[in-house]
Specification:
about 80 residues, alpha+beta, 1 helix, 5 strands, elongated
């Protein structure tokens, strides 16, 4: 099972690749933005699957998802890696 954790775009390249960070953690992804219906911009939140950005999220929705993932980790006695 895959969990869709929001990633924030921090860099764009001319060839459609996006560099994004997951939460506040050290995880950084380089993914293709070619499947997005509209281009992602720096600061946008995206959902990634199999190396492709699949969906853009509103900032409030992304922050709430990250908060809930962190809360779920805390309830299970773990620390979220993001």
């Amino acid at each position: 099972m895959c969990l869709a954790i929001p990633a924030k775009v921090i860099e764009k390249t001319d060839d459609g690749m996006l560099k994004a960070t997951v939460g506040n953690g050290p995880t950084c992804l380089t993914v293709s933005g070619i499947l997005l219906p509209e281009a992602a911009e720096i600061g946008d939140y995206i959902i990634v699957h199999a190396g492709f950005a699949m969906h853009k999220m509103e900032k409030t929705e992304a922050e709430e998802s990250l908060r809930l993932f962190r809360e779920l980790a805390a309830v299970s006695g773990q620390e979220a890696p993001f």
